Amino acid sequence: MNRFNYLFSSTKGLILTAISLVAIVTGIFNTLSGPMVEWGIRDITVSLLGMDLNPTERAGRIIMLYHTIAMAVVAIEVYMMTSIIPMRKHEQRNINMLITIGYITAMIFGLGFAYWGHNFTFHGLFLVGQSLVFFSGIMLAVAVNPWKKEYYVTDKEFAHFKSGMDMERMAFFIMIVAMLISAGFGAVTGSFWANGHETFLAEDLIREPHKTGLQKAIIGHLHIMLTLIAVAVTLVIGRWLKFKGIFHKIAMPVMIIGTIVIAGGVWSVVWTHMAHTFIYIGSVGVMLSALMLVIFSWKKLIHDNSIELGYKKANIFQKFRALIHDPIKFGPTWQMVFMNFTVSGIGIFMAIKLEQIFRVWPAREERITLTGHWHILSAIIATIIIMYYVDIAGLKGKARKWFGWILIIGSDIAFASMTIYSMKRLIIPEEVAQQGLMNTTMLLADFGLGALLITMAIFLGWKLFDLFKGDGVWKKEAKNPELEVERTSNPVLNIRKENEFNTEGGEK
Amino acid sequence: MRKLIFIFIVIVALASCSEEVIVNSETKIIETGINPNEWVEIPAGTFYYNMHSHEESIKNNYEIMITDVTNKQYAKFMNEAVKKGTIKIDADSIIGYHPGDEFNEYLHEWEIPAGDYLLMPFGEAGSHIKLLDGTFKVDKGYDMHPVVMITWFGAKAYADFYGYRLPTEKEWAKAARGTDKRAYPWGDFINEKITNYGSSTNALQRLFGGNIARTTPVGYFNGKKYDDFQTEDNKSPYGLYDMGGNVWQWVGDDYPDVHYRYMRGGSFTNYEYNIVVWARNSAGPDFYNINIGFRCARDVKTIKQAEETIDTDTLNLETNKIKTIE
C-alpha cells in the first residue's frame, strides 16, 4: 500500500488526513481575528494569501468556515464508526470514500468561496460536498441498521434487547438518523436565506422577542448538531475504553432515550416553547449515560493500572495515581467531567438566571458567554478525538505522558480561563475593575491554547516526517488499518461468513 | 511530570500578578479642534439599512450632534436640571422620573413602571463627573471626553431637558452611513489611526499612559497630529465624528414586548466587528458602563418653531439655539 492509499483509504490514514486538514485550516484562519489583528499578523495572512475580507460578509464567511471544519470532524467520527461498528467491508469502503470526497470538496470550495471572492461555481461545489457527506450519512444509517440479525450481540456483557439486538448499535443508529434529520433542519433554513444570501449568526438573534420559525430552526440546528457530535464521540470513546457490563447496560438505554428526546425537543422548538423542557429531560439521559462511561472507565483504569504499577492492595493515593497513570486514556473521560463546569453547568446556569443576570448585561457580553460555551464544547470534543488518535498512532512512553498532560492541563486552563472571562461581571460587577481579571484570564487562555497547539504541531510534524520514511509507522498502520477495539458483535460468528466484515482487523 | 506541574504553577502565579487598571481622575488636556456644540442636518430620504443593506426611508429631515455628549455638557445639564428640580440627587446617584413603558406580559418582557430611575451614579469608578460643594464638576482633562456611566434614562433626561430626543436606530444608521453601503462611517477599512477600538489599545496607551479607561476626546480622530501620532479623519458622510468606536451610543427606540434599550457604534473595548454601522448592543435602560454614552437628535420642524418663538421666550432661546447648546 502506498502513501496515497494509506492517507485516503485506510481508517488510520483517513483520520490523520482529516485531523491534518483541520489543523491547517485552524492554523491559517486563527490568524484573522482577536489579538492577531493588533499584532499585524492578519494583514500578513491576508496579503500573502490574497484573501478578500469584506466586513459585510463576515457572518457568511464564519458560517462557511465552521461548516467546513464540522464536516471534517463528522468525517473523523464516521471513519471511527465504520471501523468499530461491525459492518460489511464494502459498506465501510463506500461510506468512507463518499464522506472523504464530500468533506474535502466542501472544505476547499467552501473556503474558496468565502475568503477568495465569490465564485458561485465554488458555492455550488461546497453544496455538492455537503450533500455527499449527507448521503454517506444515509449509507451509514443503512449499514448500522441494528435490526440485522448478524449484528446481534455475541457477548451478553454488552447492553442488548431481549432478542439479542445490540443496544449500542441502536444508540449509534438513532444518533445517525437524528443527525441526518437535524442536518435537514439546517439545509432547509440555509436554502431559505441563501435565496437572498442574507447570512446572520444565531448569536445575534438572542434578544429578538419574536423569532420566526426558520430562525428558531437555525438555532436548533446548531445546538443539536454539536450535541449529536458529542453523543457520537461518547459512544466511540466507550468502545475504545472497552465499555461493557452493568454500566454499559444502564448507559445504552438512557443514551437511546436521551438522544431521541433531546433531538425531538430541539426540532419542536420551532412550534412550542415546551421544547426546552424536552431538551432538559433528554440532556439528563445523555449526560447520565456519559456518567456511566466515566465511572466504568475510571474503575477500569484504576484496576488495570494498579496491576501495571504493581500495587497489590492499592490505597486511596495509589488508586489516584493508577487513575491518572495514562493521561491519554484518563483524558477523554476527565474532559467529559470537566465539560460540566465549562459548558453544561454554564448553559444551565444561564437558563435559570437568564432574566435576573444575563439579560441585564449588555447583549454583547451575553453573546460572549454563549459563543464561549459552545466554542469550549467544540474544543473539548476536539481534544477527546485527538487523545483517541494519539492512542491509535501508538504514541508511547514519556512522549505519550507529556502529550497527554499538556493537552489536558493546557486545554483545561484555557477553557476555565475563558469561562471566567466570559462571566467576569459576576465576579467583578464594575467594568473598570475587571481589567486585571481580563488580563490574567486572557494570558492563561493564550498560554494554555499555545501549549496545546505547539504540542499538536510537534505531533503532526512527527507524523509528517514519518510519511517520508520508507518503512515508517505509517506502513505498519496501513497493514493493520482497523481500530483495535473489542466489538459488541461478531457477524462472522453469527452467520459464519468470512472475508466480508470489517471486524477482521484489530482485537475482536 | 513534576517539572510540567511546576511550569504551570509559575505561569498561573505570573498571570495573577497582572496589573489592575486604575482609572485616572485626571488626564492630559487635548485640543481636537472639533466643537461638540455643533449639529448637522440629515436630509430625509432612502438609505441602506443594516448588514443586508435593505432600502429604508426616513420621512423628515432631522439634526444630530456631530459628537457624543461630553462630560462638560452633561455636568452643565445636571447643575441646571437639579436647580430646576427636574432631576434629583439621591445619595451617590442622580435620579429622574420616567413615565414607564407599555407592558404586554410577553415572555421575558420586563415591566418598567412609572417612577424615578437612575440616570447616573457619581463618584463611582469610571465616572468623571463628581459632586463637589453642591456643584457637578468634571475631572481635569475629561471635559471633552464623551460622558459615560450614563443609563438610558440619563441620556433621555438630558435630551428631554433641552427639547431634543435620542435618535431612532434608523436615524442613527443613516447619519453614520450616508446613502451608500459602507461598513464603517468613514469607509470600508479600519485601523488604530482612524478610531478608538479594541485594536487601538497599544497605540493609545503609548499616548495616554497605561493605566487609563480609554475614551478619547470627542472628535479626536480628525486627521490631526498629536505628538507623533497622526490620526485619520473618521467623519461620517454627513460630518459626524466617532460614529464607530470610542463609546456605544444609546438610541431612543423602545420596541414592544422587550424593553431593552439599544446602542450603536461600538466602543473602545470592542473589536472591529462591533464597530461596523450595523453592530447593535442592548441592555436594560438602567444599565450604565464605562463605554456607553449618547448623542442627541432633534426635528428640524421643532428648531424652526423654536426660532419663531425666540423673541418671546428667553428660556426657549437658551435651550433651543441652533448650532450651540452651551
Q: In words, what does this structure look like?
A:
The complex is a heterodimer of chains A (508) and B (326). Chain A is mainly α and 508 residues long. Chain A has three domains: 1-144; 163-321, Four Helix Bundle (Hemerythrin (Met), subunit A) (Up-down Bundle); 326-491, Four Helix Bundle (Hemerythrin (Met), subunit A). Helix content of chain A is 74%, strand content 0%. Chain A contains 20 helices and no strands. The two termini of chain A are 24 Å apart. The mean pLDDT of chain A is 91. Chain B is α+β, with helices and mostly antiparallel strands. Chain B has one domain (67-296): paralog of FGE (formylglycine-generating enzyme). Chain B has seven helices and 16 strands. Chain B has helices at residues 2-16, 71-84, 152-161, 169-177, 201-208, 300-308, 314-319, and strands at residues 39-42, 45-49, 54-58, 62-65, 87-90, 93-98, 115-121, 129-132, 135-138, 225-226, 229-230, 248-250, 261-264, 280-283, 292-294, 297-299. A four-stranded mixed β-sheet of chain B has the order 14-13-12-15, covered by helices on one side. The model of chain B is unreliable at 310-326 (pLDDT under 50).
Secondary-structure topology with pairs:
The complex is a heterodimer of chains A (508) and B (326).
Chain A: H1 3-9, H2 11-29, H3 35-38, H4 41-49, H5 58-84, H6 89-115, H7 120-144, H8 167-194, H9 213-240, H10 246-267, H11 275-309, H12 316-323, H13 327-352, H14 354-358, H15 363-392, H16 397-422, H17 424-427, H18 435-467, H19 473-479, H20 491-495
Chain B: H1 2-16, E1 39-42, E2 45-49, E3 54-58, E4 62-65, H2 71-84, E5 87-90, E6 93-98, E7 115-121, E8 129-132, E9 135-138, H3 152-161, H4 169-177, H5 201-208, E10 225-226, E11 229-230, E12 248-250, E13 261-264, E14 280-283, E15 292-294, E16 297-299, H6 300-308, H7 314-319
Parallel strand pairs in B: 12-15
Antiparallel strand pairs in B: 1-4, 2-3, 4-16, 5-6, 6-7, 8-9, 10-11, 12-13, 13-14
